[in-house]
Write a structure and sequence with these properties.
By secondary structure, the protein is of the alpha+beta class. The chain has two helices and 14 strands, in the order ββββαβββββββαβββ. Helices cover about 20% and strands about 40% of the residues. Strand 2 and strand 3 form a beta hairpin.
Length: about 190
């Protein structure tokens, strides 16, 4: 069975749960292209990295989920607007629990980089369906609304987490929207 990113559930709400994710390491690739094709384009160099395209040609166990984060840019205009570039996405593999930057093999593909991700408190909604920008936008909006109604505040960019291979029928796919949050103030 594929190892999943480690977390504990702090609270459950009707439309989402609050999870505390352990610190971990992500292997990342930044991909230029539309949202739907970015996952496949980023997957190739990442699967190469865990399959031995690294120094010293070591294999690393596959984990779940594969994470996709659209890259946002800030236009320097008046007023200042934040918008999705629509063309860049960071695709990430979560490295197995307990692995550190120092313990991981060095990527030989210059497109692959490693980064430490600290412990995070996340609001997470789970759904099945296709991997499209429309699905992503719809579920992000629903989760952001639920977060606000529950007294939490988001404090980071949403990410799209995929748990199943592309040949899994769309109606059986496990997907999540994960948004970093701050605890509500009393």
């Amino acid at each position: 069975m594929t190892e999943e990113q480690k977390y504990t559930v702090d609270q459950k709400f009707p439309k989402f749960e609050v999870r505390r994710y352990e610190a971990c390491v992500f292997a990342d690739v930044t991909v230029t292209g539309d949202f739907e094709s970015a996952g496949s384009a980023g997957f190739r160099p990442l699967i190469g990295y865990i399959s031995g395209n690294n120094q010293p040609n070591s294999k690393i166990a596959m984990t779940a989920p594969v994470v996709q984060e659209p890259v946002f840019k800030i236009d320097m205009t008046s007023p200042v607007l934040q918008q999705s570039s629509g063309q860049e996405n960071i695709i990430s593999f979560v490295m197995p629990a307990g692995m550190t930057l120092d313990a991981l093999p060095i990527p030989t593909n210059s497109k692959v980089s490693l980064r430490e991700v600290p412990e995070q408190l996340m609001a997470v909604s789970r759904f099945s369906g296709r991997w499209t920008i429309a699905t992503y936008v719809k579920h992000v909006a629903e989760l952001e609304s639920s977060i606000a109604e529950s007294g939490f505040a988001s404090n980071g960019s949403p990410r799209f987490a995929r748990f199943d291979p592309p040949w899994t029928p769309w109606f059986m796919r496990r997907n999540e929207i994960q948004i970093p949050i701050a605890m509500p103030t009393q």
